[in-house]
Amino acid sequence: QRESNVRSYCRRFTETFVAASGCEQTTQSGKTYLDFFAGAGALNYGHNNPYIMGRVIEYLNSGGVIHSLDMHTAAKREFLTTFTEKILKPRGLSYRVQFCGPTGTNGVEAALKLARKAKGREGIFSFMGGFHGVTMGSLSATGGQDFRNGAGRCLSGVTFFPYPGKPYDGIDVPGYIRAVLDDDHSGVAKPAAIILETVQAEGGVNVAPIEFLKEIRRICDERDILMICDDVQVGCFRTGGFFSFERAGIQPDMVILSKSISGCGFPMSLMLMKPECDVWNPGEHSGTFRGYQPAFVGAKAAIEFAEENNLPETVRQSSEFLLSYLRENLSEIDGRITAGGVGLIIGIDYSGISEQSSLAGKIAGICFERGLLIETAGRGDEVLKLLPPLTTPREQLKRGCDIILESTRVALG
């Protein structure tokens, strides 16, 4: 009665949730749901991870600073030291860190703004199927028409190109970009930056081939264009490595992190930039909530937790199990259903069953009735997106898959 029409997830997940632990949430009525949604990727380490929350509770009980704008604090220093020593240095990365507003779109806005300032050009190249946020700047680089319609005005300054895979199979996208840049009659000026997700999450779990990522990096190097990697949903070990671009052996000029960076669902976003890109004047890009201290504490603890528990290996093993189990059993239901992904972001694509429109949405609804939280993605919402916490035990992964498989059978009659 009181909340705006803009609310969305609570329309699909209609229960009232009161408690959560690991890969499960419990409702007011006492029903327990297995969570393959994980706060849209904000809970990679699980709900109320004891290791991380223990550190946060200890900090809160100590009377530590909660809000400090961008002033020096012990919590910020300790996070930056840990992030540098355990994440950046081992990967040969020299990024500077900018703390942005509390959510991913704030990091995207900062990156687009800085790229334009650094290069003195207005244009941005983005990709069809991409999602970068819904504030005006990030929305201009987001492909989904439903999101763009909410702007109420023309969104300009961004040129879109096909992303590898469906529905643009067979297109040489890097070659096309080079041709557009070389054509003095293309009507498209050289951009300040190219922004991309190495795995399009909202776009339908589209995984970019390694050679494609390398070619985009080459184009940026050849043409003096900045490469921006949006790692908001697929960073923080979601694809195995801490950064999703590690598998391609490249270094973007800017990287955006949010969602799981705080380790426990606290609002936090970062924009990482190569030192030569850091052309800001003091205070030129600001915001009140860019220094939530409990998020720094949680972020430091999350990095330590991942290292102590060898999280990348856990993700690798869980990914192999999920893909193998799903593919084997889905093929028995209908050979037109496919499953793919990388790490623990996996998509089940039902678009091949042409006679069943909105099938994935129907299946997600049945899953919810049977105790599984899961969302859809992609064109026409025909992909079921699996995004379980990275710490989900094998038994729970199998249980979630069995609910999906049974829900698929029910939906297909």
Give a verbal description of the structure.
With 413 residues, the chain is α/β, with parallel strands linked by helices. The strands form 4 sheets. It has a 7-stranded mixed β-sheet with strand order 4-12-11-10-7-5-6, with helices on both faces. It has a 4-stranded mixed β-sheet with strand order 1-2-3-15. Strand 13 and strand 14 form a beta hairpin. Helix 4 packs parallel to helix 10, helix 11 runs parallel beside helix 13 and helix 12 crosses helix 13.
| Counted beta strands | 17
- Radius of gyration based on Cα positions: 21 Å
What is the count of DSSP helices, taking H or I runs of 4+ residues? 13
Distance between the termini: 36 Å
Poorly predicted parts = none
What would you say about this model in short?
It is built from 13 helices and 17 strands.
Could you list some keywords that capture this structure?
413 residues, seven-stranded mixed sheet, four-stranded mixed sheet, 13 helices, globular
Helices and strands in order:
Layout lengths: L8 H4 L4 E5 L2 E4 L4 E4 L2 H4 L8 H12 L12 H15 L7 E4 L4 H16 L4 E4 L8 H5 L4 H5 L8 E4 L11 H10 L10 E4 L2 E2 L5 E2 L2 H14 L2 E5 L23 E4 L12 E4 L19 H16 L2 H23 L4 E5 L2 E5 L9 H11 L2 E2 L1 E3 L5 E4 L7 H18 L2
Parallel strand pairs: 3-15, 5-6, 5-7, 7-10, 10-11
Antiparallel strand pairs: 1-2, 2-3, 4-12, 8-9, 11-12, 13-14, 14-17, 16-17
Helix pairs in contact: 3-10, 4-10, 8-9, 11-13, 12-13
